[in-house]
User: What shape does this take?
Amino acid sequence: MEKCSQQLRAAMVAVVGRTNSGKSTLVNRLVGEKVSIVSGMEQTTRNRIRGILTETRGQLVFLDTPGAHKAENELGTLMNKMSRTAGEGADVLVVVFDGSAPVRMEDEGWMSRALFAEIPTFFLLNKADAPGYQPEAFKSAWARLQETKGTTRNIPWLEISAAEGQSCEVLLDALFDLAPEVPEFLFPEEIVSDFPRKLAIADMLREKLIRKLYQEVPHELGVRIETIEEHEDNTWTVNATILVNRPSQKGMVIGNKGRTLRAMRRAAEPEIAEAYGLDGCKIVPFVRVEPKWFKNHFILKELGYIG
Ligand SMILES: Nc1nc2c(ncn2[C@@H]2O[C@H](COP(=O)(O)OP(=O)(O)OP(=O)(O)O)[C@@H](O)[C@H]2O)c(=O)[nH]1
Ligand SMILES: [Mg+2]
Assistant: This one.
């Protein structure tokens, strides 16, 4: 990218909020590429994922985080910790609310944290395109909280649609305006994410399975990429282990005559090929029952949820 004579600016932007509010959709929209998986299921994102936007005016590094939720196991606790501490080291905090749903306890939790955040903060009321959009309920909750705490912190609200792009340019301009001047880019100009390849591919497979399975299984589903075989004809073979908690879930993941796994492969293989500039990709999945894997620190580490 050609740099212009104006001074470069760069900022680390932590994107936080409750689960399902649209944080990953927003980061993908702002970066202009899919760096983080998205689904209608709560607790989709399990890692911190950096999405990097490079423009002539500078670089914004967005930190997508797991959404705050009521943790039910070690994995959930780790995810909440990733969410809570995301602002540390960031230049700007962006709190995303789902404006099409009622105000939840986790939303109020983020408002409380924002009261004392020491960095510039934005409140985004997302899903402006959705029916039942009710930004006033959030603004009232914020006003009530300020009254109770006796504070008067002025945080700008932006009504946006991450899905359709409404007001996303306005947000980018505001973020660049706040970004400190830097002598050079923080990350190489050509990368959109520094999330490790194996973890990114594991997430792509998990996203396809979540979308097929919806209900109970997805939360107890883990994907580990064992090996990536890079062939001379610019194709890859990806060996993946899909972890489930109970024997009954194994059949659900495989599906009738292997249908669910086949659908996962059909959706993920072209996406991986496109993301990595390949002429083809073959996924070889193996489903394994690993009781309570989400409490096992060794596995949590392998899946990138610790460390
Ligand atoms: N209508 C509408 N839907 C949206 C918008 N942004 C996100 N969604 C939907 O909301 C759901 C959750 O989106 P995600 O981006 O996965 O939410 P998240 O905050 O990253 O969720 P977690 O990773 O679970 O914390 C998905 O079904 C998205 O398609 C929006 O602007 N409008
Ligand atoms: Mg997410």
Summary: The first helix runs from residue 23 to 31.
